[in-house]
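## tool: complex_structure
## caller: assistant
## args:
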Amino acid sequence: MTRNDRPETLRRATIKDVARLAGVGVGTVSRVVNGMPEVSAASVEAVHNAIEFLGYRRNDSARILRTGATESIGLLVEDVADPFFSLLNRAVEDEVVRQGSVLLTASSSKSPDRARKLILTFCSRRVDGLIITLPEGSDEDYLIREHAAGIPMVFVDRPPQKVAADVVLTDNRGGAMQGVKHLIAHGHRRIACITDRAELFTARERVNGYRDALIDSGNPFDPSFVFSAALEQEQVDTMLGRMLADSDPPTAVFAGNNRAAVMVIGAMRRHGTLLAMVAFDDFELADIVEPGITVVAQDPQGMGVMAMDLLCARLQGSQAPPKTVTLGTRLIPRGSGELPVSGIHLPTVLR
Amino acid sequence: MTRNDRPETLRRATIKDVARLAGVGVGTVSRVVNGMPEVSAASVEAVHNAIEFLGYRRNDSARILRTGATESIGLLVEDVADPFFSLLNRAVEDEVVRQGSVLLTASSSKSPDRARKLILTFCSRRVDGLIITLPEGSDEDYLIREHAAGIPMVFVDRPPQKVAADVVLTDNRGGAMQGVKHLIAHGHRRIACITDRAELFTARERVNGYRDALIDSGNPFDPSFVFSAALEQEQVDTMLGRMLADSDPPTAVFAGNNRAAVMVIGAMRRHGTLLAMVAFDDFELADIVEPGITVVAQDPQGMGVMAMDLLCARLQGSQAPPKTVTLGTRLIPRGSGELPVSGIHLPTVLR
DNA sequence: ATGAAAGCGCTAACAA
DNA sequence: TTGTTAGCGCTTTCAT
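## result:
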C-alpha cells in the first residue's frame, strides 16, 4: 500500500481526521466541504477550523469513484505545440474550466497507435467526454466500442470514417474557393496550387475548392499546376521552377496551408519572382513580410467552443442524431493576394 | 447515485461482472488485467474472453483510490496557446506519456486567482506532481501548504518568491548579454533596448544582461535608450522616433522578446530605416523576413524535459535541497543581427 | 494458482 | 441537524 508506507506526517488528512478533530461525523464534514445548507453554524465553524489546521483537501479520486462523475474532459489533437491546435486547445480549456472540470490533453503526433493508447487511457480515466482529432489511417473499432459504452465524443478538424458522432470541421472546400476566387477577382487566371499530401482530408478538400473556383469562373483546371505531396522545400522549389517555365506560367499561387506558404515564399525568392499568393490558414506574423500574406483564416477557437458545446449537449443526455458543424472561413487581405497579374521582380539586394 | 440512474445497458462492466462471466474470482481478473504472472493459462483465456465480450475497461478512479498513485501530472503555464509554452507543454507531455501517466494542463492567463483555483483543483485530483509557471503577483502561501503536504512542484520560467522547490529558468541575463555582445562585435555602440514591463522577471533580467554587455565592453549605458513598458505599437513607434532623433542615434536594437521584435520591425518601417536587431526568444518564420531576424533562442523543450526530470527525481523520493537549473541560450544569426553600423534606408516601394 | 475479504476516502441514504 | 453506514470498483493480503 503506497500511502501507508509513508511516514505518518506525510499522510494527507482525510475526512475522518477532520471529523474526529472537529468532533462531528464524516457526513457533516462532507456537507460542509460541499457547501450544503443544512448544517449548523457551530459545525461549520468547527469543521473549517479542523480543515485549516490539518491542511485538509478533498480527495477527488474518492469522490469520483463514489459519484461516478469525473468532471474531466479528454482532448486529443495532432500536436499541442501546433499553433492551430494550441489555439483550439485553449478555447476548449476555457470552456472546461468555466464548468469546473479539468482537461486532459495529449498529442497523437499523427500516430494512430499513439492516439489509440492515449484515448483508451482517457477512457480508463472515465473522462466525461472526448474531443478528438483522429490521425489519418486510424482504426476506429475501438472508438465505436467506447462510444457505445457511453463516452460522448466529438471529432474536430477531420471527420471519422465509421464512428457516428458529432463533428466540427472547417469549410476547407469553401475556404479554398474563397481564396482562389479572390485571386481570380484580381485578374489571375493561371494559379498554382501548392499543398500537402492528398491522403490528408483537409488537403484534399482544399484542392477540391481550388478546382471548383477555377471551373466555376470558367478558367481551365490544369493538373500540372497542382502540387499535392509531402511538403519539402526542395520539391517546392523544383515544382515552382517547372511551373514558371510553362508557356503560360502562373501569376499567382494558392498555398494549401502555412507551411506551404512559407516554402512558396522561399521558392519565389530563389526564383527571383513575386507572384500573388493566398494561403489557407492564418498565422501569426503573416504581416511582418512585405507584402503581408493574404490568408483564408480558419477559426480554431470557434471550433473548440463549438466542440465543447456539442459535447455538453451530449453530457446533458441529448440523443439527437449526430451533427456535423462546418465553420466558415474569413479572407484577410494583407497585400500578397492583391498583387496584380504582372509579376514583380525583386531587386537583388533584397532577395 | 449517478451511475445507477442509468439504464442497465449503459452501466459499464466492472471487474465483478467479468469475474462472474469468466467463472473466477475478482482477484484473478485483477491479476490478468494487470498482467501478473501467477495465473493459469485457462484463467487468462476465460478472463480475456469475458473482457472482450463485456467491453470491460478498468476504472482507474477505483485503482487510484486503492493504490494512492494517480499517475498524473499537472501543468500550469501562462497560456497553452503561446508558442513558447506550447512547446514546453509538448515536451512535458512526451515525458509524461512515456511513463504512462496523464497530463492535466491549464493556462493561468496571468491571473494569480485563476492560477490558484487551477492548482488547487490539481491538488484535489492528487496529481503526483506539479509543473508551474506562476503569474506575477501570486500569493504563494497556498503553494507552500500543498508542497508541505507532499506534492512535489517544479517552477519553470520564473522563480517563486517563497516556495522552496526546484526551478528551471532560461539564462535571461546571459542570453541578453550574448545578443547585445553580438551586436557590439558587429561594430555597434549605440544600441536601443525595447522590452516588456519591468515588473516581469524575465524582462528585468534581460535588461540587466543588456546593461552588463554594454558596461563589460566599455560602452556607456544610456537609460534613455531603454524602453521597458507594456508593449504597444504606438508607444514603440514614438519611442524609436525619439531615439532616432538623438544626436548620437542607435544603430542597432535589442528586442527583449518577439512581440517587441515585431513592433520594432513595424516602427522601423514606419521610420523608413533598418537598424540591426537581435531579438530574445526564437520564433517560427523568423527567417521569412528579409533580412531574417537574428535571435537569442531559448529552449522551451529543454525546459520541459528538465522540469520533468527534476519532478521525477522528487517522485522517487529525492530529498535533496531545491535546485535551480538555468538553461543556456543559443544565438541564431539570420541577418538582422549582422547588419553593419551604417543603417540601410529601404527603397520606398518596399516599406 | 486462486477465492474471499478488507479497505482506499468519499457521498448519500437512512435513522435518530 | 446530525451520526452511522453501505458501497463506488479496485488492489492486495491472507488463506487455502
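## assistant note: Chain A touches chain B through 64 residues (CB under 8 Å). Confidence is low (pLDDT under 50) at residues 1-8, 346-351 of chain A. Handing back to user.
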